[in-house]
Specification:
single chain; 191 residues; alpha+beta; four-stranded antiparallel beta sheet; 46% helix; 20% strand; globular
Amino acid sequence: MKGHPLRNQIEEIVKLTDDEFVFVLEHFQKRIFKKHQIVLHEGDYARYDYFVLNGLMRVSRWDSNGKEHILQFGMENWWITDAEAFHYQIKSTLTVDCLEDTKALSLTLENKEKLSHELPKMQNFFLKKTTNGYIALQKRILCFLSSNANDRYHNLLSIYPGLIQRVPKAMIASYLGVTRETLSRLAKIEA
């Protein structure tokens, strides 16, 4: 099972034997989703954290004015869910849907805790991934607070290489917090 995307990601942090990886994989379910399929509705319980094998997902929320706010995209080798709803087992305030046909591995909180308990190196892996996610979120917030649209655009290009070829410009604009017109100007400068 060498070369498996999940194993590759885990082994960036901790090394696993073949038997350990088989044990880890037994705690995940392979899931196949269609483009436009909603995997988590706002108001539902977030039962799974998803590791994207291939395809593209997003986390978003609509405000009271009908404006969409995209918090995250989940491309290959990314983890995606409503983290608060998943970890606290409460109703989601976010929606997770598929922007492309997507294959993912799903992990329940119960299985995540079981893995962490029975294979302590996985606890270390999950802790480092959570810490890295927290740092990325902090950087994104700081970028929004202190950067102009051009800097946010370049930040997006570095975090999500190839994304602008995979999603409509309106979604990129939503993620950046700019209008489509501003996004078009930024893209022209880049070209």
